[in-house]
Request: fold
Amino acid sequence: MKLKHIVSGAAAAMALATAAFAQGSEPVKVAFVYVGPKDDGGWSQQHHLMATEMAEHFGEQVEFSYLESVPEAESERVFTQLALAGNDIIFATSFGYMDPMLAAAEKFPDVKFEHATGYKTAENMANYAARFYEGRAIMGHIAGRMTETDKIGYIASFPVPEVLRGMSSAYLHAKKANPDVEMTVVWLGTWFDPPREADATQAMIDQGVDVILAHTDSTAPLQTMEASGEQVWGFGQAADMIQFAPEPRLSSIIDDWAPYYIERVQAVIDGTWESGATWHGISDGMVGIGEFSEALPEEVRAEAQALMESIVSGEYHPFTGPINKQDGSVWLAEGEVADDGALLGMDFVVEGLNVDIPD
Reply:
């Protein structure tokens, strides 16, 4: 792995940077760590694009670097190296980086650390995440309405709260849209492995699944659907992905991290950075819903739009009772809404999902 640097050429940002440097300012060193390649077409690429947008915004006020395809097991060493290299703020963009980053933060109290999708903080370590379960509710509704076999699928990475929330939200709303729906879940134990993602997709298609949601990082599931010759539908994950497989893609969940990255780096520049926890959704713009495909019947598009608007307005929360846990025990009573603490630590799936959760 090589440390790579990107310097902005944006004229307005350069003008601001020139003024700052005229006063003797040093650039803020900003580093990003990605779990997959920066051009994976999904999760890591979206973080990289948003990080690049941040760098372009600040121009020479920042020195931007990144490392890609960093295994979670090796991440503490990487964070340590980045801190020793003089980085002022380090962003880590995978759930499994949480404890390694916390350990690094303890060793380097003067460095600012930011961890995506986790739940732990320290005086010099913040966390940030998006409410992807809101988008999963909309995609789930569409899946329930579009399946002709009553079989939908979910390609899962790891049994972390984000993924358990996502599949539960998708299933609940598919079931509301179509009471006959059954969901097949395949655990891959990886965020990014295009051949395995493709194999899981094809296996589902062979079993009669005709709508598939993926909670992994590559475009392989959509591309496999398109190449299958079968009428199978899917969704973009983390990025729109329409350019990779426009035919099967019905909509997408799009991550927009740029405003957060700009805000947090600006805080370092201003000397106002503080630790905290950020969890934003559709209404805040951190979660975007991609354009609905023309393949969707007008009625389904209208339903999906209405569901999105009700979530944005706060009129509806995707986890509103009555909802039971998988074992049949009551989780949320009639009208009760799940609180953020319960959702952030979610270690179960909802009733009706016939899936074993790996240890």
